[in-house]
């Protein structure tokens, strides 16, 4: 199933959680959990769920019981406010910043973060951004705030995206040399995917998360889930450049450029190539000639569209 199909199915199953949620309901004889909103799964994992207007909202599956309980607590704070019953009240007693973070998000987005196990990272990024803004407001100065928000970078690598990178395959092929040098090592036999997070300064500090996998069939390293959304929101087209970097602080703390560390911060940015006719056709990057002429299709520098007699370049 393609990534876009998976995302559509997940949106349709927002309330019941799809197959995972169905599995939890299908095993009523399984022992119950000691935590509120936590249900055991047939595979030994633990599921989390909450009820909204008598309808069940599935929050995802987790490796341990406590993690599922924490996911329920987050949902309870968003769905029912500070007065909602939670499993770990002490952990949320003075979390005013977290409450503000939750209040600014739609319920569906919080649920999506919990299902994808990205909530903690999103919260940390939001708190880091808000503390930087507060430092600037308190007189830290613009330069200081800028330094905190935009740390010095160490460039990792760049790639000019291909038509297949921005097409229906919903994946970005990472050059093998760069993948093995800069990204976490993957077991090529098991090919277990990992989740990579990249901050986007141009997107207001948004954190993009991509599933990073090794495809043994094509012997390639790829970014899959999350990539199609990045392509859509950025309006990427073939020939645009995607650049990856990391905070220089990682190297200062003993992590060489390209090595993977727990505190490593990575960044992503894109640069658009110059589009012909973007100011005339109204569709950036549509590949048309200025003034609305016919599309030029080139192969090894030759206009094969004209050669095939299906229209010359810039025919009006």
TrEMBL record:
InterPro entries per the UniProt record, alphabetical: AP2/ERF_dom, AP2/ERF_dom_sf, B3_DNA-bd, DNA-bd_dom_sf, DNA-bd_pseudobarrel_sf, LEC2-like
Key word Nucleus present: yes
One Pfam short name: B3
Chain ranges of the TF-B3 domain: 157-266
GO molecular function, one term: DNA binding
Signal peptide: none
Name the record gives this protein: AP2/ERF and B3 domain-containing protein
């Amino acid at each position: 199933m393609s990534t876009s199909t998976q995302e559509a199915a997940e949106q349709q199953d927002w309330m019941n959680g799809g197959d995972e949620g169905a599995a939890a309901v299908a095993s009523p004889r399984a022992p119950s959990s000691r935590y509120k909103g936590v249900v055991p799964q047939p595979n030994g994992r633990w599921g989390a769920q909450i009820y909204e207007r008598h309808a069940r909202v599935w929050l995802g599956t987790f490796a341990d019981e406590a993690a599922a309980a924490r996911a329920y607590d987050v949902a309870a704070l968003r769905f029912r406010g500070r007065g909602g019953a939670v499993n770990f009240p002490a952990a949320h007693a003075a979390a005013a910043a977290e409450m503000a973070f939750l209040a600014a998000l739609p319920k569906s987005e919080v649920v999506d973060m919990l299902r994808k196990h990205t909530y903690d990272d999103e919260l940390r990024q939001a708190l880091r951004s808000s503390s930087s803004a507060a430092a600037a407001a308190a007189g830290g100065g613009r330069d200081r705030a800028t330094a905190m928000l935009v740390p010095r970078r160490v460039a990792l690598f760049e790639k000019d995206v291909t038509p297949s990178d921005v097409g229906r395959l919903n994946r970005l092929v990472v050059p093998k040399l760069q993948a093995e040098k800069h990204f976490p090592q993957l077991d090529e036999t098991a090919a277990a995917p990992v989740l990579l997070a990249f901050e986007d300064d141009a997107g207001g500090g948004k954190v993009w998360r991509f599933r990073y996998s090794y495809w043994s069939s094509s012997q390639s390293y790829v970014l899959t889930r999350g990539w199609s959304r990045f392509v859509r929101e950025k309006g990427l087209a073939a020939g645009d450049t995607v650049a990856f970097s990391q905070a220089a602080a990682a190297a200062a703390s003993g992590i060489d450029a390209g090595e993977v560390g727990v505190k490593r911060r990575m960044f992503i940015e894109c640069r658009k190539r110059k589009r012909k006719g973007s100011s005339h056709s109204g569709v950036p990057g549509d590949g048309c000639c200025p003034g609305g002429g016919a599309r030029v299709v080139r192969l090894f520098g030759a206009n094969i569209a004209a050669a095939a007699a299906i229209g010359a370049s810039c025919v009006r």
